[in-house]
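Dear colleague,

Following up on yesterday's call, I've attached the two folding results inline so they're easy to grep. Please treat them as preliminary; we haven't cross-checked anything against experimental data yet. The first protein's sequence and structure tokens come first.
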Amino acid sequence: MKTVYSSFQDAVEEIHDHATLMVGGFGLVGIPENLILALVESKVKHLTVISNNCGVDDWGLGLLLKNKQIDKMIGSYVGENKEFERQVLAGELEVELTPQGTLAERIRAGGAGIPAFYTPAGVGTPIAEGKEVRTFDGKEYLLQTGLRADFSLIRAEKGDPFGNLTFNKTARNFNPMMAAAGKVTIAEVEHFVKAGELEADQVHTPGIYVQGLIEGQQEKRIERLTVAASTN
């Protein structure tokens, strides 16, 4: 049986200054928003955050960024966050941009115990600076290292007392691989279900990768609302 937290503040209590965090989500889809809010309240600082992107100015990881709690961001997309841009240009934030597929594979490799791998993505670009390049079958490949984190904060649709998780559609994104790559994984679940309620073939992340869970409802904000023009 896994630890089931009674509050989001308790769930993030062990996260310390200078910790490395993986945070699930793609844009605002599948982010552990209540765990992020608890981190904002905790005032923990000097964080290194690994995530696809850094949320928006007023939600998700953007709140930690605005609060100057992040020192370094490893991700694939700057996107909709003006504060992110401002801090980078002002030299207040260190950024390691990685092609999205490479980022996903670095996280997966870290969770699988693979220290490094070769990929053609990034060869001949600034991403390759300072990295080893080798030729295989006449094609150049760039050496990229796997990623691990002190803590992984993820979000799932359902979780049981054993830590088994299921994700809802595209909210699955980076969450399962981050669960495997964190030394301590805390899952924010929308619905906590009884033991045995999840069918074995429904489980996307087995409980061996999860140390703690907490149930909470999310706002599920939309990053950018787009609607079709009226045809009337």
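Below is the second protein, in the same order (sequence, then structure):
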Amino acid sequence: MKHRLLILSMLLISTGMNASHAQVIDSLKGQAAFIFAYYPKESLQQEFEQGYKQHLDWHRRNNDQLPWYAWYVQTGSRLGLFIDGTFGISFRAFDNRVNRSEDAADFAKTTAPYAALAFRKVYKLRKDLSTTFLLENWNPTTGMEAFDITVFPGAEKNFEHVFFEFVNAVEDTPNNPGITLYQLISGDEHSGYLLLVPRNNFSYYDDDKAIINIKSLVETYVPDKAPALLEDLSRSIKRKTSETWQYRQDLSYFPEKKP
């Protein structure tokens, strides 16, 4: 432990980051995910993006310590939907975000005139049921398949058991398949989950082990328990849809210091 503390102290000195700043950044970390979605108004997507970039400049000027990702929905019934969100923070950090009233006023001025609000949702990372944490580590891929899942009330344990078995089966596997599962806290029908499967392009699906849906995840990586787990899924899932999120780096924001 003493050696680890010494190394940490040396790193803080060598990077010029003081200990108090490190503690502030660390205090922001958590398992919350806040997701916002907008449809750019017809024929105004360029104006929407210009306004949103201006709003991101406000975050830079105010030294916002929360990361903000941006995607466009590329496939599915919500084609063209703009999604932004902050991940890997504590719920308290969202409550205490920088200059909240000014933030809202600037968004209303720069971006809102060109957009129609679609939804706002709050999720909690299920770290115990996930294998990768790219958004929490500020390391997004160029695309993701997003599965929006609703399970029957009372069937949460059956549904989550499938992911527990998957994580347990692949945790010691080199280059294990990356999935991140979030549980809905607020903003839609309960009980809801968001499953994100990162990928960089559509050639991902050329791989025989590509995760196309939860069924393929079970059959490929937990074959010995597949019949029972698929039965759990059939009894628990009420509704599920999928869509592709295409990452927009130019419409995303990150604080200067990486977590």
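For the second protein, one point worth flagging: Residues 127-245 form a domain with the Alpha-Beta Plaits fold (CATH 3.30.70.100).

Best wishes,
A.L.
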